[in-house]
Amino acid sequence: MISLAFARTLYEGSDPVHDFDHVLRVLALARRIGTAEGADMAIVETAVLLHDIHRVDEQAGSQVDHAILAAEEARRSLNQLDPPPVPTFIDAVAHAIAAHRFRNAIEPETLEAQVVFDADKLDAIGAIGIARAYAFGAQMEQKLWGEVPEGYGGAGPDHTAHHEFVYKLANIKDRLHTTTGRAIAAERHAYMANFFARLRREIEGEL
Asked: Which CATH class is domain 1-106?
């Protein structure tokens, strides 16, 4: 099957928000959630290792989202193994990868896909989520803070980590599928909300 060493080579040149360290964090969360929920861990772990392999292509301007590209590439890679896994395994891995993205319309229909989705989204919230939001913001030369207007659509020239929190990160806990994932999300969400509340007070000179 796919090894850690081989998977690492697929993320060379990735940005610090979606690099192999992200994959390893998601893998640890997926193992915790998948074991607790009774998922097929071979499917879960394979999908996690391959889930972000086309992030670079998406950021380079591809019109197809990275989850779809990664699912297609995973099919090709798994079919080239000697011997290849059974087709149902490959289908399950590809679905879990295609369904892991927050901003597409593919819902995770299997337990394994739900575990991968939850683990990936949990790495976007809490302390690590804040760090990733600001790492991305630095790449995009975003300001440290900005007020979020009513009905904000999720993107624009004034986007900041605070905008990302209000538009996306604060809603992740309500999008998770597994009991274990939701329990982890509750604590991470509280930490993140407290951070941005304090940051506002510091910016306004209250603290």
From this structure: mainly alpha
